[in-house]
Automatic annotation (TrEMBL):
Main location: membrane
Protein name: Putative MFS family arabinose efflux permease
Cellular localization per UniProt: Cell membrane
Gene Ontology CC terms: plasma membrane
Originating species: Anaerobacterium chartisolvens
Domain called Major facilitator superfamily (MFS) profile: residue spans: 1-380
Membrane topology: Multi-pass membrane protein
Alphabetized InterPro entries for the sequence: MFS, MFS_dom, MFS_Efflux_Transporters, MFS_trans_sf
Amino acid sequence: MKKYTLMLSILSISMLQAIISGISPVLADIKRAFPDVSEVLVMQLLSLPFIFTVPASLISGKLSEKLSKKTILLFGITLTTVSGIIPMFVSNFYLILIVRIFTGIGVGLVIPFMVSLIVDFFEGSEREYLFGIQGTFVCIGSITYYVLGGLLGAINWHLNFSIFFIGLLVITLVMLYLPGKDKHENKAENKSTALISKRQLVICFLVFAAALLISVFTARLSFLITGEGIGNAATTGIITMFTSVGGLMAGLYFGKLSRILNRFVVTLAIFLAGLGIFIAANTHQAGIMMLAALILGSGSALSVAAFMSMIASASSGASNTFVTAVFMSSISLGMSGAPIFTSVLSHLVPSFSARGIYTLTAVLLFLYSLMSFLIISIAKKKSFVSQNYINKA
């Protein structure tokens, strides 16, 4: 029983990863409430917090060398919850914008522990299983924020921010069931091992590239849906939700897939993401677009879980929090870089439509998948030859 409550307390933290995006359904309502504020500035309510999650994540990783993870977690969750709720009672746009920065800092302090605590307390098949379920909890949070936040926001945009009350539940679970002393606590060792290795940097770059390409789907979706008359903003929201549904489903089966495919699960994950975007680029039906989002969401969740497993196996107990912080920051940078990537493409090739960008992205993901297959196959062959040589010797 104690093990399962520990799992629940750790997994509940993952529900906060997507909470910043919960404001998305009411951005248009906020713009109408503040007509003198530009649309670009209103969009900063969504993007600005993500910018601050990156340095906060890195700081969190270094703080774990001196403070217990539970202490940092409780502070981060509390900061996220309080700053998230404040806009319910505020009608000054610039004050809301400032408060949203603190929300980003709070989430940034929390997200490194989504992975590092699983590495600390679990091993083997249990660890692989939890990496998959962790993605499921992220998706459950995403669906909750988009659906509940949208419904409440339809009543009054201020009510959208009530979704942050979920932080009180997470605080309770962490306080009750997460041990106060870190399992791998060794402050002296941390000082010498906190630096990230070349292998870990490569993994972080790979997950950054995957996040960048996969996030192109949501970055250009509204332009495709509304621009071609497939639907409206509500249609875009529903299609986006299907990416979370796909991620939820894939997370449940990651452990089994990982045991069957081993490292080739990355190849499958990136291929599915590419397939989802390719289907989206070649359909004019909202229903098929939802299927494309489902497939892409499955690939996205599997890729993150697979790379998490890689980064965990490459990290020591003492250094995994800082490494995880860099890893999660790489994902955040990839996601936030997708709009810039698509804008640059549109600027360089003005004739490039949203479908053209989708097609190019799908091709890049298929090449990524092929390269991963070849590299993993060569690595496994070398390992097999080396093992045979050792056995003969």
